[in-house]
Amino acid sequence: MTDFSNRRAALVVASAGYFFVLLDVTIVNVALAHIGSDLGGSRASLQWVVDAYALVLAAFMLSSGDLADRFGAPRVFAMGLALFGLASAGCAAAPSIGFLIGARALQGLGAAAILPTSLAIVNQLFTDPSERPRAIGTWAALGGSAMVAGPVLGGVLVAAVSWRAIFWLNVPLAALASALAVALIPAQSPRKARRLDLGGQISGALALLGLVSFLIESGREGFEAPVALVAAVLGLTSAVSFVCCERSRRQPLLELSWFAKPELSAANAASGLMNMGTLGALFAIGLYLQQSRGLSALDAGLTLVALAAPLAFLTPFSGRLVAASGPRRPAGIGLMICGGAYLGLAGVGASITAPGGIALLALAGTGMGIAVPGLVAGATQALGEGRAGIAAAINNTARQVGGAVGVALIGGLGSFSTALVASGAALLLGGSAALALMGRSRCETVRPCDRGDHGGRASDEGRRWLGRE
Questions:
Q1: Quick one: which of 180, 178, 158 has its CA closest to 169?
Q2: Is the pLDDT of residue 467 over 80?
Q3: Which of 123, 218, 282, 313 lies 20 to 30 Å from 196, alpha-carbon distance?
Q4: Is residue 133 over pLDDT 80?
Q5: In angstroms, what CA-CA distances link 53 with 137, 192, 214, 441?
C-alpha cells in the first residue's frame, strides 16, 4: 500500500475507537428495561449502569494525555481498546447488577484512554494543513455515526438475542481494532512527560463520585439517608481537596486560573448543561417507551433515531456556520431550540411516538447539531490557538460530567414529563449562558494575547493534546 493508503487505514482504526466510545453512550439506553428485568435492578441501579461508564470516562480523560506522553498515543490507544473489550466481556457475562456496574466502570476507563488518543493519532498521521481538516472531519463523521447506529443496533440485538449481545459485540471488534492499531499506526516515541498529578486525579474522581452518588442515592432514599449524607460529605471534601491540590501544583491536572475567562467558563458550563439535559432525557425516554408504553427495544431504538440522526448529520455542516458567524449564536440558539423541543415533548407526553412527538425529537437533535460545533469552537477559541487541544479535552470532560449528573439527577425523577421539563430547563439555561458570555468573534480570529501567559508550557500542552510534535 502507498503511504496515503496506510495512513487512511490507520485513520479508520482511530475513528473506530471513537465510534466505540460514543456507541456505548447510546446503545445501552434501549437495553436498560431488559437489564432491569433480567438482573432485578432498581431504577437507581440502572442509573449506575449508565453513570459508572460516564463517570470514569470523565474522571480519567485528562490524565490519559499524560500517559500518552509517557508511552506514546498509539500504545495507550491500543491498550485502551484491549481494556474496553475485556470489560465488555465482563458486562456481557455479568451475573448481577453490581458486577455489571463494576464492569461498566472498567469500560469507562478504557474509553478514557481511547477518546483523546484517537484524535491525537489523527493529528500525528495527517500533518499537512490541507489534509488534516478532512481527516478530522472523517474521524468526527465516523465516530458521530454511532449516535444513529446505537439505538437501532441496540434494539436489533436486544430483540434478536438479548441485552448481553450489545456487550458481546464489542469483544471481537475491540480485539480486532487493537490488533490493527498495533499493526497500522506508526509507533510514537515517548516525549518528556509531566509529573502525574495523582492528588488532583484522585480527589477529582472522588468529588465526581460523591456528587453522582448523592444525586442517585438521595433520589432513592431521601436527602437525610445516611448513604446520601456520606456521599455529600465525600463530594464536598474531595472538591475542596481538588482545588487545593491544583492551586499548589506546579503542573496541575487542570489549570484553574483559565476559568477566570468568562468565555471558557460559559462554553464549558453550557456544554455540561447540554449533556445534562440530553442524556438525562435519553435515559428517561428509553425507559418510558419500554416500561410505560410497552414498546419493544427495537421500536424504542427506532424512535430515538429521530433524535440522534440530525445531530450526527448536521454537525459537520454547522461547523461552517460557526466559521462564518462565530460560536456564540450557533451554540446559544441551538441549545434554546433543543430546550424548547424537550419542553414541547413534556407537553406531548403519551403522544411521543405520534408524528408530532417524532418531529419534536428531530427538532431537539437539530438544536444539538447546531450547538455542538459552536460550543467546542467557543472553548478552544477562549484559550487561544496554542491551547486548542487541552481546551477541547476540558470541554469534552465537561460534557461527560454533565451527562453523568444528568442521568443521576434527571433520570431519578419519577415522572416522565417532569424529567423532560428539567431537561428543557437545563438546556435553556445553557443557551442563555452561551448567548450572554461566550466569545463573539469568528472562529478563525484568535487573539495573540491568549497565547501569552504560561508561555512555552501552553504551547506544549496544545501540541500534546492535538497530537502534534
A1: 158
A2: no
A3: 123
A4: no
A5: 26, 30, 17, 36
The band of 67, judged by pLDDT with boundaries at 50, 70 and 90, is confident
| Residue pair 118/110 in contact by the 8 Å Cβ criterion | no
* Residue 431 CB-density burial (10 A; 0-12 exposed, 13-18 middle, 19+ buried): buried
Q: Output the pLDDT for position 193.
A: 61
Triad 124, 73, 387: Cα angle to 5°: 65
Q: What is the pLDDT of residues 269-281, one digit of tens each?
A: 999 999 999 999 9
Single out the residue of 239, 215, 224, 287 nearest to residue 59, CA to CA: 239
The DSSP call for residue 192 is P
Answer whether 435's CB lies under 8 Å from 328's CB: yes
Q: Which three cell numbers stand for residue 451?
A: 497565547
Closest C-alpha among 409, 431, 430 to residue 418: 409
pLDDT of 455 over the 60 cut: no
| Rounded Cα–Cα distance for residues 317 and 300 (Å) | 28
Q: Which amino acid is at 263?
A: E
Closest CA to 88 of 167, 35, 166: 167
* Strand, coil or helix: 1: coil
End-to-end CA distance of the chain: give it in Å, rounded.
Answer: 25
- Number of Cβ within 10 Å of residue 299's Cβ equals 17
Q: Give me 64's grid cell.
A: 490519559
Q: With the CA atoms of 126, 129, 135 and 140 taken in that order, what torsion angle do they form, in degrees rounded to the nearest 10?
A: 120
C-alpha cell at 458: 501552553
* Number of Cβ within a 10 Å radius of residue 302: 17
Radius of gyration in angstroms for the set of CA atoms belonging to the chain, rounded to a whole number: 21
Cβ-based neighbour number of residue 449 at 10 Å: 8
Q: Per-residue pLDDT tens for 155-168?
A: 999 999 999 999 99
User: How far apart, in Å, are the Cα atoms of 417 and each of 43, 55, 143, 147?
Assistant: 17, 26, 31, 24
> In this structure, are residues 34 and 163 in contact, taking their beta carbons and an 8 Å threshold?
yes
Residue 457 has pLDDT above 70, yes or no: no
Q: Which of 242-246, 338-342, 343-347, 348-352 has the lowest mean pLDDT?
A: 348-352
H/E element holding 178? helix 170-184
Separation of alpha carbons 111 and 24, rounded Å: 9
Give one DSSP letter per residue of 259-328, joined into a string: GGSHHHHHHHHHHHHHHHHHHHHHHHHHHIIIIIS---HHHHHHHHHHHHHHHHHHHHHHHHHHHHH-SH
pTM for the model: 0.84
